[in-house]
Amino acid sequence: MDPAAPCLVGVDYFPEHWPEERWAEDVRLMREAGMRVVRIAEFTWSKTQPRYGVWDWAWLDRAVETIAGAGLKLILCTPTACPPPWMVQEYPDILPVTTQGRPMTLGQRRHYSPLHAGYREACREIAEQLALRYGSHPEVIGFQIDNELHGTIEDVGPLAQAAFHRWLKARHGTLEALDRNLGLVFWSQQYSNWSQIPVPASASHHPGLRAEWCRFVSQAWTAFCRVQADAMRPHIADRVLTTNCYLHRWGMEIDWHELMREGGLDLFAFDNYSNALHENGYYSDLARSLSTPHWILEQRCGDTRHHHIWPEPEVPLEELTEAAARAGAKVITYFRWRQGLFGHEQDHGAVLDHHGRPGRMYGRVSDAIARVAAAEPIDPPQPSTGIVFTWPDAWLSSSSPNSLHYRDLILENAYRGVFEREGSGRFVLEPGQLEGLRTVLVAGKLIHDPDWEVALIDFARGGGTLVAFPMLFAKDAFNKYRPEYLTPALREVFGIEIERRILVREGHAVTAELEGAPLLLHTRVEELVPASAEVLGRFSDGPLAGLPWITRCRTGKGSAVYAAGYPDADGMRAVLDRVAVRGD
Question: For the chain, which ranges sit under pLDDT 50?
């Protein structure tokens, strides 16, 4: 898709929920609102394949032609998030086993294990059939695979356990190596047979094994996506393949960076249920770091049964839509066209209310679309501040007894501070993405990696400002602490030693000062021993009162700043004002 093309704004539509005689009226209203693209067929497996070997595409053919005939583009979805009842009856073992030890039941969605070979084959078949039928349609611009991969469902049943054992064996080779890598001697967890290893679905399990489980789950879902992508690719010419990822507040189980590299997708897309402009910016900037362009396949309009219900303030729909388009989204579809009369989401906000007549939300959506269409074309922002971000670090944090709360740390502290100060930021997902940045924030980077270490040191010595926070490279890839707090190279570049690390109870904060102004530090603080570093601020109270909390060391053409505490967004802005702008 051409990154220079204008943003197409449209809607998610469920024609199967409405009488066919209503379709033409719906499409007319979409056109009058200025919509240009419609996403359909997301949960239609039981209608498209009502029984094994029986296909009914006629209804979808008519829906596609009704929409295309009005001059609207289409995005079609594989319906694999909801296996039909006949399939579950024939293959009951496709149902995932929840962390409560019970199989899921029909009547929900994502009631399947991505590891079931028979289900993967069924998904491959229907994805291929969809591509064969519509992959050359002139008004179809892309396909969405499944819906919100993983969601909040975690399979811990026999299929998952056996696959996890195979994965561990391939990764570690022997039980002795697994024991050594993870430290399984703790609490007598040294296994003598692979089959003894449990599914560590609870955060209270061994931190090393839990982190490995997170990696396994992400790779399993990426492979599930790839099965469908490979089946569709030969039949869709230049049409886009993507999937719709859900927000991090519901989980960070899938590594989006790995999904884009290994999942067979062309561009990144997400569902935008952001509650605030800085959260909207976070996902837009993260999306731009993953692909150019990107799509938003569910843009909220109204409440979602959980958020923006009175007396909470209404979602700033117009501002969110405009901001997303400015940040480089080339497709934005509102969820959903009309409030459903039945089903689990019948109270979910929509463009039209239950009665189906244009009302206040229809007017707001129409205005938002007009504002996007009238906006002067602009290039997406080119941020000067980067934020290091990796899913494996998030998994280590969530698997540890004292979590850093990675999502909140990055979104609400680091990113929000950058957003409110500069309007946007760039997420640095791998060591080779530092070029063009002036300042880089390294918060929650737990896993020591020589490539990351070299890249960050080179960035500082090459003229950048490197700003690091507690727990920098504190662990190895298996969630074990490293006894060496900083490597010799890092001690030199930061000009400090770290003497000890101290936990801060959740809900409490340590006060520190920076240029005479107070700020609050959360989660962790560290005792620094400056060598060649300049002290920029000291702790005002707490266990380290009077000692340095933030230092700076000149190195090469740039500088390396170490902050021995995690500030909130206001504190992050203060740090950036001190070290990134003045730089004195």
Answer: 581-584
CA–CA separation, 297 and 357 (whole Å):
23
- Burial label, 54 (beta-carbon count in 10 A; 0-12, 13-18, 19+): exposed
Q: Choose the final residue of a domain: 230, 246, 266.
A: 266
Q: What is the pLDDT of residues 375-413, one digit of tens each?
A: 877 777 789 999 999 999 999 999 998 888 999 999 999
- Taken as a whole, the chain contains a residue count of 584
Same domain, 415 and 548: yes
Q: Which has the closest alpha carbon to 286: 308, 269, 306?
A: 269
Rounded CA separation 315/310 (Å):
11
- First vs last Cα of the chain: how many Å apart? 45
Is 174:188 a contact under the CB 8 Å cutoff? no
Residue 362 lies in a domain: no
Number of domains in the chain: 2
- Domain termination site, one of 266, 282, 298: 266
What are the catalytic residues?
148, 298
Find the CATH number of the domain harbouring 76: 3.20.20.80
**pTM of structure:** 0.95
Are 72 and 30 in contact, with CB atoms under 8 Å apart? yes
Tokens of 41: 């067929």
pLDDT tens readout for residues 284-323 = 999 999 999 999 999 998 777 666 677 777 778 899 999 9
230 in a structural domain: yes
The answer to whether residue 306 is domain-embedded is no
Q: Is residue 162 part of a domain?
A: no
Q: Which of 248, 258, 30, 36 is nearest to 139 (CA)?
A: 36
CATH of the domain at 445: 3.40.50.880
Q: What angle do CA 472, 478, 481 make, to 5 degrees?
A: 45
Show the domain range for 436: 385-582
